[in-house]
Amino acid sequence: MGHRWRKSENNRQVLIEKMEIRNLRINYLRKLKGYRAEGRPIFFMDESYVHSTTTKQSAWGDSSSEGLKTPISKGPRLIIVHAGSENRFVKGALLTFQSGKKKRRLS
Questions:
Q1: How far are the Cα atoms of 2, 5, 25, 32, 36 from residue 18, in angstroms, in the given order?
Q2: Cα separation of 25 and 31, whole Å?
Q3: Contacts of range 1-4, beta carbons closer than 8 Å, 24 or more positions apart
Q4: Angle at 84 between CA 34 and CA 21, to 5 degrees
Q5: What confidence tens digit (pLDDT) does each residue in 33-66 have?
Q6: Of the candidates 56, 49, 53, 98, which has an alpha carbon nearest to the alpha carbon of residue 73?
Q7: In sequence order, what are the residues at sequence separation of 6 or more whose Cβ sits closer than 8 angstroms to the Cβ of residue 29?
Q8: Helices (H) and strands (E) in the chain, counts
Q9: Once rounded to an integer, what is the mean pLDDT over residues 88-105?
């Protein structure tokens, strides 16, 4: 994204970004502020994922068994994409699919 690390005068590392990236962000924030002032609804889209082998780190049990083993391989992931505003999600915008699969939509 055009970022790089530089050391400052007090020998601490600071993140430096390209002026072009900075200007794009400022322009985006100004437009967003204007849209909010006009009362326009603002929607955002985000993604997340869940590993198919996700397990809890601890569980209730007695000493008669070892319990669940943590899998060595992470395996495939379930990718989740959705769009929404501060009030609601966009109907029909949910997209879920398994990583590594082609043309197989789960929702």
A1: 6, 11, 11, 21, 27
A2: 10
A3: none
A4: 50
A5: 999 999 999 999 999 998 877 666 666 666 666 6
A6: 53
A7: none
A8: 1, 5
A9: 84
3-state secondary structure of 16: strand
* Contact status, residue 5 vs residue 15, Cβ threshold 8 Å: yes
Which two tokens mark 22? 């900075």
The Cα–Cα gap between 46 and 90 comes to 12
Q: How far apart are CA 69 and CA 8, in angstroms?
A: 47
Q: What is the domain partition of the chain in residue ranges?
A: 1-40, 42-107
Q: What value does the mean pLDDT take over residues 69-94?
A: 86
Tell me which amino acid residue 103 is: K
Task: Write out the two tokens for 71.
Answer: 């899998």
